[in-house]
Each structure stands twice: as structure tokens, then as C-alpha cells.
Design brief:
The complex is a heterodimer. Chain A is 30% helix and 31% strand. Chain A is α+β, with helices and mostly antiparallel strands. In chain A, helix 1 crosses helix 2 and helix 7 crosses helix 9. The longest helix of chain A is centred in the C-terminal third of the chain and has 13 residues. Chain B is α+β, with helices and mostly antiparallel strands. Chain B has a domain of 60 residues. Chain B is built from three helices and five strands; from the N terminus they run E-E-E-E-H-H-H-E. Classes of the chains: A alpha+beta, B alpha+beta. At the A-B interface, helix 7 and helix 9 of A face strand 2 and strand 3 of B.
Chain lengths: 296, 99
């Protein structure tokens, strides 16, 4: 059963107690709240994911509680540890997503965790890595409307034993001008409501395609490692990048490179072995998507 | 400005391994199991570090070995560069003087 198959009352009851549990790729999460608006919006973001039994042992439990009845302030905890206190209630949903990013999707050290957005076609994955604001989320949001499967918007968990990337096809977080850019590029995209006033400006989430969620148990081999840079004046171009330099830059974008030590180095180096590496400068989404379509 | 003692012999830091990767384009990455740091090296720096991982050498000996290994005519032109390199590799904790 999927989260979206629950009726509104049942969804709200689940969130309240014992918390809504669902399976997101290799991870299990629980979100607990009695706040109806938070439950509704978080439920929407995970509507396509398999529902898990409420008592499931999860990777992280995130709770959103009202600070004082009737006042618009909340606190968010993860596994009992406070993440946000006296947070404006209208920011609760994007902050639940950020809490899940930090507490679930960056922690598991059995994988090499690269900060990256990942799409796949014909069994070969394109890994877009780079700092916040480089345009990777916008680009993958566009690519999944042009025949690519979404593996992840935020993190690429690379399995050291075979170098494959495990899908974590959560909703794609879009910011500021990217929201309108995707509405224009793919009018059929399912976007949740916009959340203005976050530290990253206005944020909206694009639902993952149902097929990507249905195939969340299918890992993919990395074939291309791309470092995008958003530059509105640039002509879209994939510039080959020497592999040693690509390794150094990718290591900078990993969440647990230093934690894994030699295993992290060897996992990343093996990934670089398999990948063609590119710098991508682009400002035009259509032109960038065309470049990806030409990758063979 | 620091300068290297030309008579001093150097070696790679003992007790740890250097894990190498390269892709045939003249650049190398090396992971140092002691520090957990990864370094990007060009051909000359990489060869110098490999030589110091195998032997204790002073700057002149190192220049000669690197020149032979890379097919350069002689090591003399490399020597000033390698003296600077020795200081850099020392600062990075990749080599140490032999006492």
C-alpha cells in the first residue's frame, strides 16, 4: 500500500500516532505530528512511497510539535534531539525535509554518500554533483521529464561492494527562479505549494515520477560524473574534466569521504574509473537537457 | 623564506601506505593512510614521491632518479624545483627528513 492511498482522516491519524512510516529506497523513515496541515503536505510529498507498519524499526523518526497551543511556533526533533526550536509553523514542511536530509540521508556510512542529483537511462547513471545553487536539482527535475529515471535529488549512496548507486527518489527541492523554470519546462510536473521565507528563499517540491518510485529497488551503474554550474550567459557545453581533478572535486562534495578513509577513496576512485567526467556550464535548461540526451 | 638542506636525506613518512590512482593523463591522486588526506600531483611530484617511498634520497639524488624515470636528459634542471617540492611534501606530511 502506498501513502497516497490513505484517506485524509486515516493519514492524519497515522501521522499522530504512531507516526507515518514509509520506505524511501534503502531507508525507512517515520514522521510524527498532530498538526493537520503539516501531515497533509508531508503526506503529499511521500504519497507514492510504500507505507510501512507503524512499529517498523526506522532509520530516523522526525517529530513536529506545536510549542504552545494556538500559537504559530513549532519544534522539530529527530530521534529525540531538537533540530529546530520556536520555528515558524509555516516553515515546518521544508524544515522536515531538511531534517530528513541531514539526519537520514547523509548519515549511513555503509555507503559512500555523495552530495549529488542522479538520473538513469538504459542502466547508466548520470551523477550531477556540486554545491548548493549549482543547478543540479533544476536539471534533474527537467531530465526526468525527458525520459530519464530519477534516482535522487540530494544524495547518491554508492555501494562500495559493486559501485552501484542506490535510488532515493524523494521529491525534488526547487528554489526561487527554478520553480517557475520547471513549471515552464514541464507544465505537467506535480509541484507542491511554495514555501517562502526559508533560509534558501522560496522553496517548492516536485513529486518524483511514479515510475521512479516504483523502481526504487533498482540500483544503477554510474557512467557520467557532471559538475554543473549555473551561468545564465553561458552557451551550454559539456567540457571534459581530467579524472584526477574530478576525484578531488567529488571528494569535496561527499558527506562521509573522510569518515570512510581508504574505503571512501577507493570507492570514489572506482566510480571515477567507470565515468566520463565533465564540467557543465549552462543557463538554458532546454540546451542542457539536449546535451544529456546526446550522452552515449 | 624556508630552504631545504641540500645534504639532508628524505623519505616518505614511515608506517603508512600511499594508495595511488591515475588515468594516463599526467595527473595523479594519492591517498595517505596516515593522514586520511588525498593529494593531486603532477607527473614530477608523483614520481618524486614514489622514489621517496622506495628510498632515502637527498635533493640531488632525487632529481637524478626522477629525471631517469621520466626520461629527462638530466636531473640538474629539476633540482631547484625538487628542492621546493621537498618543502611542500614535508609541509603536507607526506615525507620526513632522515635523521
Amino acid at each position: 500500500m502506498r501513502v497516497g492511498e490513505l484517506g485524509p482522516a486515516e493519514l492524519r491519524a497515522r501521522f499522530a500516532d504512531p507516526g507515518l512510516c514509509c520506505e524511501v529506497g534503502p531507508f525507512a523513515i517515520r514522521v510524527k505530528t498532530r498538526l493537520g496541515d503539516v501531515a497533509r503536505h508531508v503526506g503529499f510529498l511521500y504519497s507514492q512511497f510504500p507505507l510501512l507498519d507503524g512499529e517498523t524499526l526506522v532509520d530516523t523518526e522526525v517529530c513536529v510539535r506545536s510549542k504552545l497551543p494556538g500559537l504559530p511556533w513549532v519544534e522539530i526533533t529527530a530521534d529525540g534531539e531538537q533540530q529546530y526550536d520556536w520555528l515558524k509553523r509555516r516553515l515546518a514542511v521544508p524544515m522536515v525535509e531538511w531534517t530528513l536530509n541531514v539526519c537520514v540521508f547523509q548519515r549511513p556510512h555503509q555507503y559512500f554518500m555523495l552530495h549529488a542529483a542522479v538520473v538513469e537511462r538504459d542502466g547508466r547513471a548520470a551523477v550531477l554533483t556540486g554545491r548548493a545553487g549549482s543547478g543540479k536539482s533544476t536539471l534533474v527535475a527537467a531530465l526526468v521529464h525527458r525520459g530519464w529515471r530519477l534516482l535522487s535529488d540530494e544524495v547518491a549512496p554508492v555501494r562500495p561492494s559493486d559501485g552501484r548507486i542506490l535510488p532515493v527518489p524523494r521529491a525534488i527541492g526547487l528554489k526561487e527562479a527554478s520553480i517557475e523554470a520547471i513549471r515552464r519546462f514541464a507544465p505537467q510536473a506535480m509541484l507542491g505549494r511554495s514555501w517562502p521565507g526559508t533560509v534558501k528563499g522560496t522553496v517548492a517540491h516536485m513529486l518524483p515520477p511514479a515510475e521512479s518510485v516504483a523502481r526504487a529497488a533498482e540500483p544503477a551503474k554510474p557512467a557520467w560524473l557532471v559538475f554543473p554550474t549555473y551561468d545564465p550567459r553561458a552557451r551550454a557545453q559539456l567540457q571534459p574534466l581530467p579524472k584526477a581533478r574530478a576525484l578531488m572535486r567529488a571528494a569535496d562534495n561527499a558527506f562521509n569521504y573522510s569518515v570512510l578513509g581508504r574505503l571512501g577513496f577507493e570507492t570514489l576512485a572506482d566510480m571515477i574509473d567507470r565515468c566520463e567526467c565533465f564540467d557543465l556550464r549552462c543557463g538554458d535548461l532546454e540546451a542542457a537537457v539536449t546535451l544529456f540526451d546526446e550522452l552515449r | 623564506m624556508k630552504s631545504v638542506d641540500r645534504r639532508a636525506k628524505w623519505t616518505a613518512i614511515q608506517g603508512f601506505s600511499l594508495i595511488w590512482r591515475s588515468w594516463g593523463d599526467g595527473e595523479f591522486v594519492v591517498y595517505h593512510t596516515g593522514s586520511g588526506e588525498t593529494h593531486l600531483l603532477n607527473e614530477v611530484s608523483a614520481e618524486a614521491l614514489r622514489q621517496l617511498d622506495a628510498s632515502c634520497l637527498d635533493a640531488r639524488e632525487l632529481a637524478a632518479r626522477v629525471a631517469v624515470s621520466l626520461g629527462r636528459a638530466n636531473g640538474e634542471s629539476l633540482e631547484p624545483h625538487l628542492e621546493d617540492l621537498l618543502l611542500q611534501l614535508d609541509e603536507l606530511g607526506l615525507i620526513e627528513p632522515v635523521t
